Amino acid sequence: MYELTKDSRLRKNKEYRLVYRYGKSYVNRYVVLYVMARSSKQCTRMGFVTGKKIGCAVERNRCRRLMKEVYRLHRQELGSGFDLVLIGRSPLKNINFAQAEYYILKVLRIAGILSKKR
């Protein structure tokens, strides 16, 4: 069963702030990705964020579930040694999984995080 372990996710506010401050951002209409490089020997850690502008809690949770599922299906393709924060934007709540997958993978490719082409 899939589990996002403590080692593979950002957990503390301090970790998120470091990525926001020193990381590079990549944007499309549906998501924003912040990337901060770490040592290549360390595993990639991921954080998922949705703001209140998206809507009620149900819509925010759905957006986070979409982002987490795309990450779960493609985490073997991600390079190691990064801290990533994926922020859902408001239009993300209106698209289906296939479209969300396309746009999230697109921003990961632009950032150079995906290790193998699809």
From TrEMBL:
Q: Which SUPFAM superfamilies match?
A: Ribosomal protein S5 domain 2-like (SSF54211)
> How far does the signal peptide extend, from start to end residue?
none
Q: Which reaction does it catalyse?
A: Endonucleolytic cleavage of RNA, removing 5'-extranucleotides from tRNA precursor
Q: Name one GO molecular function term.
A: tRNA binding
Key words, A-Z: Endonuclease, Hydrolase, Nuclease, RNA-binding, tRNA processing
GO BP terms: namely: tRNA 5'-leader removal
Q: Does the keyword Cell membrane apply?
A: no
**Enzyme Commission number, as recorded:** 3.1.26.5
Identify the HAMAP family for this entry: RNase_P
Quaternary structure, per UniProt, is:
Consists of a catalytic RNA component (M1 or rnpB) and a protein subunit.
Put simply, this protein is called Ribonuclease P protein component
Which lineage?
Bacteria, Bacillati, Bacillota, Negativicutes, Veillonellales
